[in-house]
Design the sequence.
């Protein structure tokens, strides 16, 4: 049953997101093609504009991935579609897992599309050499490898997006436990949770600094910032966001299992 739920969730989310994928790809190809025409200021200008549109579509695809995931959750669990959803012989936990997996899959494919479109727009041997040079210098500075550096940065970005996604789900679930103003309270709950979590992260960094002088040096900007302190902050950020993801996933699941007030 999870597979069927996941299929329909993905189909609903991608129905709109795929449009932004196509537009991002088309504008990337058009921009790259026009920019390749030499000695033509008009074509190069249009090409740059097309690439700007492509970047806009990439950003829109990620935003719509999150928005469609949240909208699917609301419509399918609380709105008109919920009457059919809750008559299915499936546990609320399975419904929740399907929604989370569908959103994460969409986030992953969106990131792949963004990387592909950026490559279409800006790939050249000169750009690759420059990027490689920057990565090698940065990796050498942080006493790590290029692959490890890319892994750390990409992992941090990905889990931060998943973290925002789950906060949205928890906000929706808690907000819809009220009788009135459900959407307003859902948004307010998500914002409050996000702010509280960020404050908790800052407090965690400060506590880490009490046991690690290098991290405390980073907090105290009057002191010299060391490479090790920045690395510790990055590793701490990855670890704490993973903990947040697990916590918010479990909170959302437990709150949904308590019951649903269908509108």
Sequence:
């Amino acid at each position: 049953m999870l597979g069927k739920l996941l299929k329909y969730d993905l189909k609903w989310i991608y129905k709109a997101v795929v449009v932004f994928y196509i537009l991002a790809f088309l504008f990337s190809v058009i921009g790259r093609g026009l920019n390749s025409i030499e000695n033509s200021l008009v074509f190069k200008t249009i090409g740059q504009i097309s690439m700007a549109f492509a970047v806009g579509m990439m950003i829109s695809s990620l935003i719509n991935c999150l928005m469609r995931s949240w909208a699917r959750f609301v419509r399918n669990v609380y709105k008109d579609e919920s009457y059919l959803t809750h008559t299915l012989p499936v546990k609320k936990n399975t419904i929740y897992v399907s929604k989370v997996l569908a959103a994460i899959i969409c986030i992953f494919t969106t990131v792949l599309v963004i990387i592909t479109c950026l490559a279409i727009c800006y790939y050249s041997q000169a750009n690759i050499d420059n990027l490689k040079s920057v990565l090698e210098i940065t990796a050498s500075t942080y006493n790590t490898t290029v692959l490890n550096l890319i892994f750390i940065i990409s992992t941090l970005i990905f889990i931060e997006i998943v973290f925002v996604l789950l906060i949205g789900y928890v906000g929706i679930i808690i907000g819809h436990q009220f009788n009135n103003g459900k959407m307003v309270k859902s948004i307010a709950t998500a914002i409050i949770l996000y702010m509280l979590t960020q404050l908790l992260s800052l407090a965690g960094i400060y506590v880490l600094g009490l046991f690690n002088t290098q991290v405390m040096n980073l907090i105290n900007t009057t002191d010299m910032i060391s490479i090790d302190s920045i690395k510790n902050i990055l590793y701490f950020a990855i670890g704490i966001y993973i903990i947040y993801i697990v916590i918010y996933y479990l909170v959302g699941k437990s709150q949904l299992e308590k019951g649903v007030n269908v509108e």
Observations:
- The radius of gyration is 22 Å.
- The chain has a mean pLDDT of 83.
- Residues 3 and 187 are 30 Å apart (CA to CA).
